[in-house]
Amino acid sequence: MSSPRSPDPAAQSFLAHRRSVPARLLREPGPGPEQQAWLLRHAMRVPDHGGLAPWRVIALEGAAKERFGEQLAARAIARDPQVSAEKREKERLRYTHAPWVVVVVASIDERHPRIPAQEQLLSAGCVAHSLLLGAQALGFGAQWLTGWAAYDSWTATLLHLDRDERVIGFVHIGSCSEEPSERHRPDFMAKVSAWTA
């Protein structure tokens, strides 16, 4: 194991500029097969108490991604027939922007004798975050989204999820069509306190 050292300037800059790119700004080209394999391999190098690997991913691209989006748009209207025309259009286009969408799924053993479900859930969340970092490292933009579909039982059936599985999020990945604006970041010191006895 290496000893502590000064941060690498490139790594410092990379972390200082980490940000999500709105899915609506993502376009072709997306990552090719080798880049996809690299992203997935490295995204799964996450904290994982007990080595359970309590996650898996489902990749959506091409015609399959379009069909998935169409079915979810229809489901959104079925859930709320009074939904506005603007929201109907948003649902219809939701999966059309980014060329590659990765569904991160938590596979949780609720009755594990040693590893709490929350730790398994957090490990799956780390996979989604690692996909964001990996996409940025390759020069792509990415956004981790949930929305109603992540919590909908009909969507879970559409994705063929098991009873112990749940969607952590949909990670949209592609090339940036424009530079996204920076959002306000909290003062990190306002979020830090020191415990005293």
Describe the structure.
The chain has 197 residues and is of the alpha+beta class. It has one domain (32-176): NADH Oxidase, CATH 3.40.109. Helices cover 37% and strands 17% of the residues. It has six helices and five strands. Strands 1, 2, 3, 4 and 5 form a five-stranded antiparallel sheet that branches. Helix 2 runs antiparallel to helix 5. The longest helix has 21 residues, at 117-137. It is globular.
Keywords:
single chain; 37% helix; 5-stranded antiparallel β-sheet; 197 residues; NADH Oxidase
Write the layout of secondary structure elements.
Elements lengths: L8 H8 L9 E2 L5 H11 L11 E7 H18 L5 H9 L6 E8 L9 H21 L3 E5 L7 H6 L6 E12 L21
